[in-house]
């Protein structure tokens, strides 16, 4: 005869409750729409889901035309920066449960770059500024072994090595919104990465580039960039260090 314990219904261990959330997405199809418009979608989500999962559910189950970029889905490639409830974030690093799910979640493309379709912008102006600061090691010699660097020297630019070029900082900057010519925080962060590298010989070249009227002096220290950075880089501090290096003439 079976025991009472054996007859009890199987318990679902660690069951995760589903809930419905409304996403209001700013849509734009250049082939059909004169202006962007907002469209809402109800999706069933779990507390472990991220905004990127919600966008996938919409695309796969409701509207295959919804367009957005993503690649790694783990905060590394930098391709899914977007404005979520008015703040720049990576969709793959934003848990739905960390937002107020009693209200709709607003999702739109990052600002200040030309809108191409739905959540996709043209990143070329962003990368043009990035390339302009020569973000690579410049050294005249060809050593037989690796270039030696002290721990202290390495630490000077450690923070700015973490950049994944997501553009969350640059596209949250009010100066960049109003003046597309400004290099923007990300380009300055990536210049900082090499300006303060003791193995590099082109710091002065980069400082001259950033001493331009569209360079570091356009920064108004609003800290939007530091708040937006998904890698926790102290962007405003890096910009201040570049300004200081220009003023003193040495990194
Ligand atoms: S500094 Fe941060 S926010 Fe800006 S592009 Fe790099 S990772 Fe993205
Ligand atoms: S998809 Fe790669 S950072 Fe989010």
Describe the secondary-structure layout.
Elements: H1 4-7, E1 18-27, E2 37-46, H2 51-62, E3 81-84, E4 87-90, E5 105-108, E6 115-117, E7 120-121, H3 124-132, H4 151-155, H5 174-178, H6 185-195, H7 203-210, H8 224-228, H9 235-248
Parallel strand pairs: 1-5
Antiparallel strand pairs: 1-2, 3-4, 3-5, 6-7
Helix pairs in contact: 3-6, 6-7, 6-9
The structure holds iron/sulfur cluster and FE2/S2 (inorganic) cluster (FES).
Note the main attributes of this structure.
2 domains, five-stranded mixed β-sheet, binds iron/sulfur cluster, Ubiquitin-like (UB roll), elongated, alpha+beta, 9 helices, two-stranded antiparallel sheet, 251 residues, binds FE2/S2 (inorganic) cluster, disordered N terminus, 29% helix, 3Fe-4S, Fumarate Reductase Iron-sulfur Protein, Chain B, domain 2
